[in-house]
Design a protein that fits this description.
The protein is an all-alpha fold and 343 residues long. The chain has a domain of 226 residues: Tetratricopeptide repeat domain (Serine Threonine Protein Phosphatase 5, Tetratricopeptide repeat). α5 crosses α6, α7 packs across α8 and α10 packs antiparallel against α11. The chain is globular. It starts with 9 loop residues before the first helix and ends with a helix. The relative contact order is 0.09.
Length: 343
Amino acid sequence: MRSRTILFSAFLATAVTQAIAAEPVPLPQPRPDSSEPADKPIAAQLPQPATTTPLPSADTINPDRFGAKPSDAAYGAFQRGLYKTAYNLALSRAQNGDPAAQTLVAEILSRGLGVPVDAAGAAKWYALAAEQGVPESQFQYALMLLDGRYVKKDEKEAYALMQAAAEAGNRLAQFNFAQLMVEQEPGDAGIAKAVSYYERAAATGLADAQYAMAQVYANGAGGKPRDDVRARGLLAQAARQNYDTAQIDLATWMIEGRGGARDLKSGFNWMKQAAEGGNVAAQNRLAKLYMNGIGTDPDLILAGAWYVVARRAGLIDQKMDDFLQGLTDEQTQQALQRANRLP
């Protein structure tokens, strides 16, 4: 089982979008593409709950994930990558009711570390540890209750566990509990209730939450006054963590001078980083920056190449199609060759 920021269904993602869109002054909706000039604002909304984050390696896992660092050899074996040994050592303690050991066993089973993946078995141990107040287990079990694949779906219990984990300081739970609140109470009132949880998660450095708060300040939502300077700072924090949507927004804000000084070169570099990371919208927008010479020297070949990359991924931009049609045969061939070498 993956470590996830959240595993909500497509219904929940849609509900959050609809909740925001229902307001007289909604947070703007995301666009997978735009034919607007590259120096126009890029619309965005609060991050959707389908985003995922990879699991950290075992040696970087904070022992707080287990409620308290186990003092016996189980946790030491886990840290050294001796997962089967860790499982065997922790299992007896887990069976005797030790919540830290129960969480450790659940982690090993959910990820298939040294043992076959057993999500249903992991759910049992997460549930037992959650009952004893381990925030990480409360969060993980809440995800399973929302998902409904390995345990019976129970949104009410999931909400309660997510809130408990959030109040205990689990930053992923804080972000996702905020998302649940927005889904349950559409509109600005729900965002206002969620803001404190977004803020707490953002303060820990969680990029999803930093981006959410950037959107809150950018739009003056949830009882917060509009503050472009603060929003741009939060976008920068998330962008530095390779949050590609934040990189796109930050690039655009720098290019247009929103929330701070206009900085075409830095804006170009952020857009390029998002494009090289595989963001298709950024690839199209980077093509326009090359085409118009914004933040860089004009380069028709690279403009064509980046648009070809975006188009191959399914993005269609009529303005860029017209641009490609206007290239000479030699320029088109060069653009195609460059596109083949781009990330």
